[in-house]
Design goal:
Elements: H1 2-12, H2 16-34, H3 44-60, H4 66-77, H5 81-90, H6 94-106
Helix pairs in contact: 2-3, 2-5, 2-6, 3-6, 4-6
Amino acid sequence: MKAFSEYEQKSASRSKDDEKKLWSDFMKLFENCGKLKDSDYKSAEAQAMVKDIKNYITKNFYECTNEILAGLGKMYAAEGEFKSNIDKAGGNGTAEFVSRAIAEYVK
């Protein structure tokens, strides 16, 4: 898969500290999403937040196409580690909000 090989290339040159900061910064995006979770997921602000997430993934991990983003959105709201971590960063309901905002963004 192209995305996985791109991820491997980008991560190969990073130290463990670099990786830790990268993931910490990524989770800060979800912390910010939590501030919007009680608003309309279709709002310009929510859609800009999705674009920030997409751009962050593309810059630091792999090209985040709308197809990949749609899959991530579904994973974010599914029970498991993604949902738990996102809700931990942004508060309960953040993962579901982000998932809905992503679904709106990619349609």
